[in-house]
Amino acid sequence: MTEAAWKPHVTVAAHCERDGRYLLVRESIDGREVYNQPAGHLDPGESLLEAVIRETLEETLFRFEPTAMVGIYRYPLPGDDDATFVRFLFRGEVTGPVAGELDADIVAAEWLTYAEVMACRDRHRTPMVMQCIDDARAGRSFPLAIFSPEFV
Fold first, then answer.
1. Quick one: 109 exposed, middle or buried, by C-beta within 10 A (0-12, 13-18, 19+)?
2. Helix or strand run (H / E) with residue 117
3. How far apart are the C-alpha atoms of 133 and 6, rounded to whole Å?
4. Could you count the other beta carbons within 10 Å of the beta carbon of residue 122?
């Protein structure tokens, strides 16, 4: 008998900053409202860039154009040895909003100042939310050319 292969969850997230404000989504998870970057899972047949564009649109109704990658993060879910998330964080520009409806679990898309993001830190979905913002603020940035066009 062989054990099932362990597979981390591959996710993407968008870092959007405009006029000193950061685009976050307030979402309802397990009956609790939390803040997160526009983010979600990579779907079958989708590139990382396609995924972050799609997720941002679905969760915020803003069109997202990735300009760089900020970093790659690994987050093991506390209390669940099988749940680990690998997040690819992209920085970029947004336009919109466009007409449509937000994903069902999204309460609102909000532009928050850094002080407001810090003030709701106890309501961040994971510690990655703050770490991602701090890394972007520190200037972490990698060109999208680090991804091979054939395998992005």
1. buried
2. helix 114-119
3. 29
4. 7
Domain borders along the chain are 9-143
Question: In terms of DSSP bridges, do strands 106-113 and 32-36 run parallel, antiparallel, or are they unpaired?
Answer: unpaired
| Cβ contacts of 58 within 8 Å, gap of 6 or more | 40, 102, 103
Instruction: Give residue-wise pLDDT tens across range 72-128.
Output: 999 998 888 788 999 999 999 999 889 999 999 999 999 999 999 999 999 999 999
Report how far apart, in Å, the C-alpha atoms of 43 and of each of 27, 48, 61, 104, 146 are. 20, 9, 19, 18, 21
CATH topology of domain 9-143: Nucleoside Triphosphate Pyrophosphohydrolase (3.90.79)
Dist CA 144 CA 140 (whole Å):
13
Q: Which pair of structure tokens corresponds to residue 117?
A: 């993001």
